Amino acid sequence: MFSVAILAGGLATRLRPITEEIPKSLIEVAGKPFICHQLDYLRKQGINSVVLCIGFLGEMIQEVVGNGSRWDMHVSYSIDGPALLGTGGALRQALPLLGEHFFILYGDSYLPIDFGDVGKTYLASGKKGLMTVLKNQNRWDKSNVEFAAGQIIEYNKTVIRPQMHYIDYGLGILQRTVLRAYPPRRPFDLSKVYNNLSLVGELAGYEVFERFYEIGSYQGIVDTQAYLLKQVEKGDL
What pLDDT sits at residue 237? Predict the structure, then answer.
């Protein structure tokens, strides 16, 4: 199984004033810091190696998570440094800690999905990247993905076209050579990487049919907590 890079270095301005004192990953959801829920879930998926890309207040995440032994996995850290590098720049910075192929997970996302099946789909595609997608129809955000026959025709966060009915579900895979083409120590967004890959036909797609959960907004926290508590009641957590 590939390692997982978790993007947990942003400022989370939508959740201020909470995130002025703690990073978003440490917001308590269903009785424990959100990052703990993510790591619990990843371990159940068979993941044993995680790279946390951290920035603002990242040392607080390090104190809680440590080296990952609590989850019987190896957790390492890639630190933005004095200036935030953005989602793409943070991944570029983390390359020395990542393998030839790796999952990418946002630090505020909880995704009911089979990581193993996503990985197999990616390898079978022969593409340089993969994006999981959900038919969104503008329900959770503006749809920004045109998807057909297992391939992303175009992903574009800035130029929205009528053919775009899907949205980035929140789990991706990249080949490390993709990020090597970008300059180190310079900020850029992961959306640029995905857009470029889609335009040259190198971004496979994996359709998901169950909604995602996130803590990037106050309503998102409410929904995610309700979902996780339900899983506890069912004995799945």
Answer: 59
Is 162 strand, coil or helix? coil
Domain-wise residue ranges, the chain: 3-234
Read off the pLDDT of each residue in 200-222 and give the average, rounded to a whole number: 91
Task: Say which residue the tokens 């983390």 belong to.
Answer: 94
Looking at the DSSP bridge assignments, the partners of residue 104 are: 5, 172
Q: What is the C-alpha to C-alpha distance for residues 97 and 172, in angstroms, rounded to an integer?
A: 17
Q: Give the pLDDT of residue 150.
A: 81
On the 0-12 / 13-18 / 19+ scale of CB atoms within 10 A, 151 is middle
At position 19, the amino acid (one-letter code) is T
If pLDDT is split at 50, 70 and 90, which confidence band does 182 have? very high
Average of per-residue pLDDT values in the chain:
90
How many Cα atoms sit within 13 Å of 81 on the Cβ side?
Answer: 10
Superfamily of domain 3-234: Spore Coat Polysaccharide Biosynthesis Protein SpsA; Chain A (3.90.550.10)
Q: Which residue shows structure tokens 């939508």?
A: 14
Q: Are strands 101-106 and 49-54 parallel, antiparallel or unpaired?
A: unpaired
Alpha helices in the chain (DSSP H): 34-44, 58-65, 86-94, 115-125, 176-180, 190-199, 218-234
- Give the C-alpha separation, 146 to 161, whole Å: 8
Question: Which is more confident, 235 or 121?
Answer: 121
Among 236, 94, 108, CA closest to 179:
94
DSSP state of 40: H
Q: What is the pTM of this model?
A: 0.93
Cβ proximity of 142 and 160 under 8 Å: yes
